[in-house]
Amino acid sequence: MRSLMLLTLAACAPGEGTLELLTWGEESATVDLQTDDGWTITLDHWVTTVSNIELGDEKTEERLARDASAYVLDLTVQTAPLPIGEISAAAKRHTFGFTIAPPTADAEVFDGVEDIAEQMRTEGWAHYASGSATDGSQTIDFEFGLDLGGRSTNCDNGDDGTAGVALEEGSVVPAVVTFHVDHMFWTALGTEEADLEFGTLATLDGGDGFIDNDDLRAVSTIDIGYESAGLVDNLYDFISFSMAQSAHLNGDGLCTVRSL
């Protein structure tokens, strides 16, 4: 059942503004991805959890306001930013941070993915992705549950390049936690300019036309030539690390990410 819980405020207190919290995966989560090596990727599901959204003092980093809820959503069905809540805070500039982690038992689940959310909770997955890819001559199905979550802090604002978010008294300002789902198919870590490929993944199916977590774990990033910057040594950890870095503020606003 699709549900929507808004922490709606009747009115801002004097000297306060409202931050409207939204999230989505942009158009790339809802349309086929075209890779640099000639594959077409179709995502059936991309489920993730956003939680513990916080505003802080830009000088002391003290937490000033927080939405402690967890929200589970399927990015492949969101054709526009999805409202998930609101935070009331002082009319000033704030730092912005959030957590990507496995769903909690009381997480608010959108888009009819309760079964996937329960599997993520049981397995300890921060992201779940399934779909298929074709190069015109073969089709490969995949299903991945990625266990590396992250705490994103001190986010830049992708709308104007400033730090965090600025609230004005009586105003409502949007803050969109934006996921770049194509990160899963990048061939390098530590950059926003990596190639988008699927051909190497296609060789891992063992002849059955299907790739899962075990297939990824069995492959060394050195053997396949992926640039891991020394951070990981197998393809499962590579993709998990890349996805932990995939969430931004208002489009392309980068955050400082600490693994959980």
Key terms:
eleven-stranded mixed beta sheet; 260 residues; 15 strands; mainly beta; four-stranded mixed beta sheet
Please, could you describe this protein's structure?
- This protein is mainly beta.
- The chain has one domain (16-259).
- 13% of the residues lie in helices and 38% in strands.
- The protein contains 5 helices and 15 strands.
- It has helices at residues 114-123, 199-202, 213-217, 221-224, 235-244; strands spanning 16-24, 33-34, 40-57, 63-74, 82-90, 93-100, 108-109, 127-134, 139-146, 150-153, 165-166, 172-179, 210-211, 247-249, 256-259.
- Strands 2, 3, 4, 6, 7, 8, 9, 10, 11, 13 and 15 form an 11-stranded mixed β-sheet that branches. A 4-stranded mixed β-sheet has the order 5-1-12-14, with no helix packed on it.
- β2 and β3 (40-57) form a beta hairpin.
- The radius of gyration is 19 Å and the shape is elongated.
- The chain starts with 15 loop residues before the first strand and ends with a strand.
| Sheet with most strands | 11 strands, mixed
Helices and strands, in order, run as EEEEEEEHEEEEEHEHHHEE
Total domain count: 1
The dominant shape is elongated
Q: How many strands appear in the DSSP assignment?
A: 15
Number of helices: 5
What distance separates the N and C termini? 30 Å
Q: Gyration radius, to the nearest Å?
A: 19 Å
Question: Can I get a quick summary?
Answer:
Helices cover 13% and strands 38% of the residues. The protein has helices spanning 114-123, 199-202, 213-217, 221-224, 235-244, and strands at 16-24, 33-34, 40-57, 63-74, 82-90, 93-100, 108-109, 127-134, 139-146, 150-153, 165-166, 172-179, 210-211, 247-249, 256-259. Strands 2, 3, 4, 6, 7, 8, 9, 10, 11, 13 and 15 form an eleven-stranded mixed sheet that branches. A four-stranded mixed sheet has the order 5-1-12-14, with no helix packed on it.
